[in-house]
Amino acid sequence: MTAPIEECQLHGDPSETSVPVDRVMLVKAANSADALWSVEQMLRAGTCSAVIFWAQHVKDSSRRRLHLAAQSTESLFIVVRPLATAQDSSPATLRLALRPTCDGLVIDIVKGRGPALAGPIPVTLQPTPVLFSNRGRAAKPAREGADHIVSALERAHA
């Protein structure tokens, strides 16, 4: 995973998550250029099962380079961008917009192959121990939407 230092923190006991923390590599790049370079190298090396990249502002040329690197590997490549960028152009084959709801989230397909769906896809999320654990929770939430989901789940099970 690559992200600005303040935006992504790994917490929790590996037994409480489906991804063992010891199998996750977090790259804390000093700036956007270093983050883009790191992601491209990880994709080109093909040694990661998945690469998740949190991006705020990425130039078209950089998005294209990452897209080409992703096509050259079998690694799953996910770019997480602000919802405000949903209408920006992108070489990605599949683009999703995720919005929190009281009982989970709604997925809108912004761009995809094949026939368009009639509407958004609602996903009900079941609470897990990780969501209710105060251990390892960041003092400052990384994203407002994630806070909303956790609050809704806590209210539902109170």
CATH class of the largest domain: Alpha Beta
Shape: globular
CATH superfamily of the largest domain: P-loop containing nucleotide triphosphate hydrolases
Distance between the termini: 33 Å
Spans where pLDDT lies below 50 across 5 or more residues: 4-9, 137-150
Number of domains: 2
**Mean pLDDT level:** 76
In the CATH hierarchy, the third-tier topology of the largest domain is known as Rossmann fold
Strand content: 15-25%
Task: Please list the strands of the largest sheet in the order they lie side by side.
Answer: 3-4-5
Structural class: alpha+beta
Q: Using DSSP, what is the number of strands? A: 5
Can you describe what's shown?
Keywords: DNA damage. The protein has four helices and five strands, in the order H-E-H-E-E-E-E-H-H. With 158 residues, the chain is an alpha+beta fold. The protein has two domains: 1-91, 3-Layer(aba) Sandwich (Rossmann fold), CATH 3.40.50.300; 93-158, no CATH class. The strands form two sheets. A three-stranded antiparallel β-sheet has the order 3-4-5. Strands 1-2 form a two-stranded parallel sheet. Helix 2 (60-71) links the parallel strand 1 and strand 2. Helix 1 (32-45) packs parallel to helix 2. It is globular and about 35 Å long. Mean pLDDT is 76; it is low at 4-9 and 137-150.
